[in-house]
Amino acid sequence: MGGFRSGRHSSRPTSEAMASYVLYISSLRALFGKEPNPTSMTAFVEPGFPLTIRLDASDPSCGFLELVHRTRDDRAGIVRDRIQLVWTVPTYGGRRWWFVCPRTDRRTSKLFLPDGGAHFWSRQAYDLAYACQRDDRFSRLRRRAAKLNAQLGGDGSESWDIPPTKPKWMRWRTYERKYERWKRVVEKANEEFMVRACRLQLT
Fold it and tell me: From 59, 80, 139, 200, which residue has the greatest number of CB atoms within 10 Å?
């Protein structure tokens, strides 16, 4: 009765389509601060949706978050969840923290509370698709070209098919390697665009 994905049986919804609230582990970085074993409390308030978060990492082997918030289903109750935290050691040192999804028991950097949901779970737990998975081939190629364009010092999506000039800080060898990758993706995107244009003329 009105729960998450109630009445939905076709394609997987996206987090955007389900108007999900998203909690990022990176947004808690300030709470961890410089102390190795922090204990803090804070509150993130979305318009009309308060979320209280208590962080306890005083013992790194069993760190956790306590989340207090309303549900987004017909029950309209208050939920108090405990989210386990784990950490790994990146190659550059320090600690990288992760949520552990209460539903799947998998590490994740983001937790979602979609419309109709009651708990902050991972994308996999709610079976949410990425918006880019709905894109056609041309859109995926254009997004890839924009990303490479930005790596070359360009404006990204604003000029995804315009060759950017080499940044002063980038070595020529690096620039030429990235430029060739960008060029190949742009060529594929232009070819796909022409194929689509021809199909439209035939219809």
Answer: 139
